[in-house]
Amino acid sequence: MTNEPLWPPHRMWFGGDYNPEQWPREVWADDLRLMREAGVTVVTVGVFSWARLEPREGEFDFAWLDDVLDGLHSAGIGVDLATATASPPPWMALHHPDILPVTRDGVRLSPGSRQHYSPSSATYRRFAERLVRAMVERYAKHPAIVAWHINNEYGCHVSHSYDDESAAAFRSWLELKYGDIDTLNDAWGTAFWSQWYGSFDEILPPRAAPTFGNPGHLLDFDRFSSDALRELFRAEAAILRAATPEIPITTNFMGFFKGVDYWSWADDVDFVSDDSYPDPADPFSPIFAAASRDLMRSLGGGAPWVLMEQAPSAVNWRERNAPKPAGMNRLHSLQAVARGADGVMYFQWRQSRAGAEKFHSGMVPHFGEHSRIFRETAAIGAQLGGLDDLIGSTLHADVAIVFDWDAWRLLEQQAVPTALNYREIVLGWYRSLWERGILVDFVHPHGDLSRYSVVIAPAMVVADTQTQEALEAFVDGGGRLVMTASSAIVDEKAHIHLGGYLGELRNTLGLGIEEIAPLAGPDLAATGQAPVPATAITGEITGEARLWREFVHPSTATVLSTFDDPIVGGWPAITVNHRGDGRAWYVATMLGEEATDALVDLVLADAGIPTTRERGSTIEVVRRGNRVFRLDHATGEAAIEIVDEVGDDTA
Q1: For 464-489, how does the pLDDT look when each residue is reduced to its tens digit (9 = 90+)?
Q2: 519, 533 in Cβ contact below 8 A?
Q3: Which residues of 95-107 are buried (b: 16+ CB within 10 A; e: fewer)?
Q4: What pLDDT shows up at residue 616?
Q5: Active-site residue, from 54, 165, 309, 550
Q6: What is the predicted pLDDT for the residue at 528?
Q7: What is the pLDDT of residue 269?
Q8: 164-to-103, 159, 195, 410 alpha-carbon distances in Å
Q9: How far apart are CA 20 and CA 651, in angstroms?
Q10: pLDDT of residue 1
Q11: Residue 309: which of 363, 266, 229, 263 has the closest Cα?
Q12: pLDDT of amino acid 650
């Protein structure tokens, strides 16, 4: 090991998941040759190698991994060494079936795939910790290691387990949170449907039931399940940090993934990393990918992060798996760097010959090195080598979008006014900002809003006192706030804010809400016809209202637009409330693109934030440090320009 800190790195990470255990040893030397040719600087090793490292219970075999790490080090390639705990070996399930997860319907899942463990299994955790101790004892001083990579994509396949061990852990979690059963009964509103609990022992996970579950019960089990996975991560991290405090630790997030609340995990990793697989056939992919990059940067408080996984071309898990056309691989890679990444990695290095992911593209495809995929990937490696001076540089955003996992969970429960897709709603606002060249941060409802000029809080259905006070202070301090329908309807316990919803935000927004009036066509189940949930709004802003409407009573707010339909016709659709130098807009529906764009233009102009792209432009422009990235998502062309002034601003 050198005295040089391992994070931030001194060169851009470029490489991918390397799985030499899938290949005979004679291939390994060729791998090193091709890695040097492609400009690879770091590879992730060992993600799915537990069965090779511990082929029989308590019997470890590290000899093959020794050779792999030594070879990579001799080639000047760093190793992001995985703890291999993502996929337990078959012997564990055979001899210790208690590790296996159980679905909500009571089905115990079997081995033969991956991630077949209950997050609350003490047996799984004991074996995982033993493996990590063995690995750190052997490799703590190995000069190839530049980071530890714990597990893999926590919760991707099993984010919740409903087994008896999870039930006991859930009860302990609840007792720690609430202290006594009366407090829990109040929080969950168990007076309804005779759900009152006499003790914590009576509580089970929200398994399959005759009809709708208790909203507080469901929400707390979502929270518990994220925390249970986090405790597994923290247990491994504690072992690694005690032995190798100088080696940074990460685990790969999965962008907008509902099963794990990444805000609560962000402080546990030394740097954020992400797996991102935008669909090449989806024209929305550049926007979705940009939003994922901005979320990762935001989770780390603006610090650089790593794109840990992407595909060089097609994946294998969609119904139809489109390849990436020429230029898209480079665009996605440079987009990540432009939006704060200090590394670009892939799954995986060499495309598998066998197994469930053999049709997932690799940096070295089945055809070999004389292929467009390898040539394009190697060209990206060469280009990234010229961007090392950007390492550690940050970006500044004037606009933030509030993103909350609790809102996501509650909004998409059953027994709600209408079915909504939280991620789609959030990304609808993000799209409008992206198309105007506006860099966006995502913020937690309790995050610092003071550095932003504009904050948009779409469908923030849950708002506790701290959130309400923060948003009020933001507006009173001169900020521009936009809130939408289905916001601040409940508190953190999923209890309704009575008297017009919104809580104290009624004063901030200058209005109250009398009634929710979802848009709906004929019931799909009854008629077989798809509903058309849209109507019109008229006034200063015109366009389409979708899915949801509200009967709004303005107090101090000014009405900008009204609904034009038989039910809520003439009632306010968009309002604005002036408070000192601040403004608070409220949208009592989910706007179509035209109306969203019009309101975004109005708010940005009011805040004095210039747009940097022409309408309809396919070119994404982002400035990071002294580089301006121009990425044309229509032609696949990319250009990076050096500007004279060094700054942390978008172009």
Answers
A1: 999 999 999 999 999 999 999 999 99
A2: yes
A3: ebeebbbbeeeee
A4: 79
A5: 309
A6: 52
A7: 98
A8: 11, 16, 20, 25
A9: 42
A10: 42
A11: 363
A12: 45
Q: How far apart are CA 218 and CA 258, in angstroms?
A: 14
Nearest one of 96, 88, 95 to 112, comparing CA atoms: 88
Q: Give the pLDDT confidence score for residue 522 in this predicted structure.
A: 57
CB 536 within 8 A of CB 527: no
Q: Are 579 and 637 in contact (CB under 8 A)?
A: no
* pLDDT in the model for residue 141: 97
Which residues in the chain land under pLDDT 50? 1, 525, 646-651
Catalytic annotation, pick one of 153, 357, 472, 550: 153
Active site residue 435: no
Instruction: Map tokens 């250009």 to a residue.
Output: 639
Residue 153 bears catalytic tag: yes
Strands (E), 54-188: 78-82, 145-149
Amino acid sitting at position 143: P
CATH node for 13-88+123-159+244-390? 3.20.20.80
CATH fold for domain 399-607:
Rossmann fold (3.40.50)
What is the residue-averaged pLDDT of the chain?
95
Strand 341-346 versus strand 273-275 pairing type: unpaired
SS3 assignment, position 90: helix
pTM for the complete prediction? 0.96
Domain spans in the chain, listed from the N-terminal domain onward = 13-88+123-159+244-390, 399-607
